[in-house]
Amino acid sequence: MARREKSPVGKLPSAKPREGTAVHAKGHERVERILDAAMDVLVEDGYAGLSLRGVAQRAGLSLGNLQYYFPTKQDVVRALLSRYLEGTIRRVRERMEAGAREPARRLRQALDSILEDQDSPRHFQLFAELWALAARDAMVADALRVFYGGYREGLVELLQEAMPELTPARRERRAALLMAFFEGLSLFRGGGSLASASVPGVEQELRALWDEFAEGSAEGLSPRRRAPT
């Protein structure tokens, strides 16, 4: 059976079947089933319990069928991260496009979407498992490194849409800071073991700080507050 080529190290594969085949629609449905099954196994049994055979069984496919799309366990993990990133950026953009045109309001919509995404215990458990493994598993570390590179690029694009007056260098720096902030915040949300340490009302305070950040950004290029480059 023909196999799909492995993605090179340092690049997340798209969570989609190959274009231009007669089974493209069926392939897309199978890929989604595979990734849903892999997510279930990771959340329930951890990375140590993840195997291609177990995922295939849960997805109702043969092992050979699964390996046509994902030859290795590493390919499955990379595709899971790719699907999560694509979905997150898409949801944020949809919220921004549905809101007002003012930069501050658009960024508030982006924040609300990110906070809603963090409320998912399954997503938190997925990343908690991968974070713990990254220190001793080079493949997981590489997949997360690429994931966060894509995450930062997505934030850069969102900042460019909402605040085109910022220089490219400032967008890069702000995107990196925002990514670190959101990931740190996620430790205290989403049903993790540290959630009980969170302070009531922190989301409301965060929204107030976010509004100040957005308004300050809009004023940052005024003659009286010249922004660094």
Automatic annotation (TrEMBL):
Gene3D superfamilies: Tetracycline Repressor, domain 2 (1.10.357.10). Signal peptide: none annotated. SUPFAM superfamilies: Homeodomain-like, Tetracyclin repressor-like, C-terminal domain. One of its GO terms (molecular function) is DNA-binding transcription factor activity. Residues 16-27 have a biased composition (Basic and acidic residues). Residues 1-27 are annotated as: Disordered. PROSITE patterns: HTH_TETR_2. Keywords: DNA-binding, Repressor, Transcription, Transcription regulation. Residues 51-70 bind DNA. Residues 28-88 form the HTH tetR-type domain. InterPro entries: BetI_C (IPR039538), Homeodomain-like_sf (IPR009057), HTH-type_TetR-like_transc_reg (IPR050109), HTH_TetR (IPR001647), Tet_transcr_reg_TetR-rel_C_sf (IPR036271). This is TetR family transcriptional regulator. It comes from Myxococcus stipitatus (strain DSM 14675 / JCM 12634 / Mx s8). The lineage of its organism: Bacteria, Pseudomonadati, Myxococcota, Myxococcia, Myxococcales.
